[in-house]
Amino acid sequence: MKLTYPKVLLIIAGALILLSLLRVITGANNLTESGQYTAALNAAVPIGLAGLGGLWAERSGVINIGLEGMMMLGAFSAGAVGWEHGPWAAALAGVLGGALGGLLHALATVTFGVDHIISGVAINIMALGMTQFLAKLWFGAEGSAAAAAGGNDKQSPPMPDMPTFTVPGLSDWLYSIEQHHWFLVSDVAGICGSLVSNVSWLTVLTAVLFVLTFFVLWRSSFGLRLRSCGEGPIAAESLGVNVYRYKYAAVVVSGALAGLGGAFLAIYVHIYQDGQTGGRGYIGLATMIFGNWRPGGVAMGAGLFGFMDALQLRGGGPTVHALLLLLAVLLVGLAVWKLRTGYRTQAVISLVCAVLLAVWYLTTTTVALEIVSVAPYITTLLVLALAAQRLRPPKAIGKIYRRGQGK
């Protein structure tokens, strides 16, 4: 089923009504509070940038498992530069650090024909070891300027704040409406309020990058040639496309976007820390798959995973407990749909899971924080399991291509 703009608007309206009903029934006001969505937006940005980076690489036919390592390089580069030169220089350094990782991945896979998975895993391992070694060398060296400024073996010195913007008047008005907890109206106000209050300029830049990606890859001759390399590189070569050049460009851009995502993590908390990416590169890869290799789908997936990730920061036990009821209702709907389309076994499994979730919800009042902390990863598995039947990856993805092999 092709999603048109009217259908997308209907889905958004339905989701808002469902969330509002869930808030009223469960009393979990955190579901639509502006603070929750501000945190979700900040959590979604690095995941979305990693997913967008994966999209660029895989649309050219190169699998990029190394997104996590490229995010590490971006975060470290941002920390190394940001404490002396500020957050914008940190963002640029993160882009360059990630692009360097992308260039290495392109060299291995495109030029030397290394298996894409092996190369990506090697970059992740290399990036982890390199950042830990350089952190000790640059930030934790005894008597160094970085150590005197607050750096150590595990983290960089702090950097200044990234500027944010707030729409005067509108922000306060939406917040006042949110506090009334009116059905739907306050919920919409809370969500919209997060978009006009203390928004980082890097978040705005990320939104622009998503739009640019769509127009470059789907509305330009450059994008058509790049995507042809991922669908049929031999046919593209026969039409005069320099496949190597386009693959290199795509993978370097992929690394740069992932590096910017890593830089955002460092800039957001004002320092680089060891282990800062926390697997977000892999979740970004999952958003790309869930989004069916399309920018809009990646954005939706990043928003979902960002919301679940933000629950960890806001003590979201009661909120996750409320979401159990929502998930039970959605599984009942899925069971009915599967039954109507003839998939009886899947319908029964969905119904049983819905009943178990409903029992869990009715017999408890909250969810343990240990479960909340793994909620983003559980969500990743569930979403990928449900989306698996409609996925359509590029035809030549992951295949080793050598120039002139079609002759």
Automatic annotation (TrEMBL):
Record keyword Transmembrane helix present: yes
InterPro entries, per the entry: ABC_transp_permease (IPR001851)
A cellular component annotation (GO) from this entry: plasma membrane
Segments traversing the membrane: 37-55, 62-83, 89-110, 117-135, 199-218, 248-271, 319-337, 344-362, 368-388
Keywords per UniProt: Cell membrane, Membrane, Transmembrane, Transmembrane helix
Molecular function via GO: transmembrane transporter activity
Acetylation found in the keyword field: no
Pfam family, one: BPD_transp_2
Membrane topology per record: Multi-pass membrane protein
Localization: Cell membrane
Official protein name in the record: ABC transporter permease
Organism in which the protein naturally occurs: Streptomyces auratus AGR0001
